[in-house]
Amino acid sequence: MSTTGTQEKTDESTIGLNRIDSETVDSALAYDVEAESTASEALRRITILQDQPAQQNLPKFLLPLFVLIILSFYSQAQDFGLSFSYFIPKNGYFSTPISPFSIRGVGFDINRFLAIETGGSLYRMSGLNVKGLPFTTKDALVGPNFTMLVPVELVVQFKGPVVEFDIKGGVFGFYGFGQRLNYGNFDRALRKYEGWEVANSDLTFKNKPGWGYHGGAELTVYVTQQVGISLETNYLVGDSKFPLMGTYAGGNGTIETKAAAFPDAKIDFTGLEFSIGVIIKSGGGSPSRRRR
Questions:
Q1: What is the pLDDT of residue 149?
Q2: DSSP per position, 197-234
Q3: What is the reported pLDDT for 11?
Q4: Over the stretch 224-259, which tens digit does the pLDDT of each residue have?
Q5: What is the distance between the alpha carbons of residues 263 and 206, in angstroms, rounded to a whole number?
Q6: 193, 201 in Cβ contact below 8 A?
Q7: pLDDT of 201
Q8: pTM for the model
Q9: Which of 141, 108, 111, 113 lies closest to 127 in space, CA to CA?
């Protein structure tokens, strides 16, 4: 009896261990299948990313930043300095530069009195207005965003021993990165336009590059043969196509929905740009082509 009981307990233990081993194996197999599935999914995503163009995986603003860095290296061949440019848009918000990504005054002299200059500035635009809508507003309707500005200008130079005065004029191109709508201001403008108490819009847009023309002047005073202080002011007039589509809803008690189609909408890039800078020449002598 004792021997038989012991044998039965041993058999039950063996069956229990076999059951545990079977469950462990099943769990391990299920884990392996799940891990293999996760690994396959990760490999599939990596393959998709590798198949995509490299430009789509990088932020769009890296290219203009790279161009500005190249310009900065080129600009330091003769003169170098520090310059801050600010933009005050018409019916918009005060915008600031992103230092050190502002290189202006890169160019060459045609003769003693004429020169060609270019460069680039990367702005953090707080807000810009939109024109070409059936209503008008003095509030910014787009922004904040990053905006790349590249001018090309003809410069008339009046050089003196310690003072230089330049008159400038030309064209510029610009493009806004990370563009977004200011729905708060947009809905307020729609409420006023429709005469509603409430309004809520849902819009999409197509962001496109723009261009314009500008004119201004620059005064540079050399406090020593190697150090000068520059003050510059330009007035810019430009725009970029910004067609808007979607719907908006609102009313006075009763809510109605309307289709929104503004194909002629444009970002208004009109305003005053001013900058102040310190120019340090790499050698003595009279003032020459400045780059900053």
A1: 93
A2: SEEEEEEEE----EEEEEEEEEEEEESSSSEEEEEEEE
A3: 47
A4: 988 899 999 999 999 999 999 999 999 998 999 999
A5: 10
A6: no
A7: 96
A8: 0.70
A9: 141
Residue spans of the chain under pLDDT 50: 1-59, 61-62, 65-66, 68-69, 72-78, 285-292
| C-alpha distance from residue 238 to each of 35, 131, 211, 245 (Å) | 56, 11, 5, 22
Give me the amino acid identity at 64.
P
| Helix (DSSP H) and strand (DSSP E) numbers for the chain | 4, 12
Q: At a CB cut-off of 8 Å and minimum separation 6, what does 230 contact?
A: 81, 83, 218, 219, 220, 275, 276, 277, 278, 279, 290, 292
Instruction: Write phi, then psi, for 195 (nearest 5 degrees).
Output: 75, 30
* pLDDT of amino acid 15: 43
Backbone angles phi, psi at 160, to 5 degrees: -125, 180
**12 DSSP β-pair partners:** none
Question: CA 290, CA 81: separation in Å to the nearest integer?
Answer: 9
Residue 151's nearest CA partner among 232, 60, 241 is 232
End-to-end CA distance of the chain: 104
| pLDDT the model gives residue 244 | 97
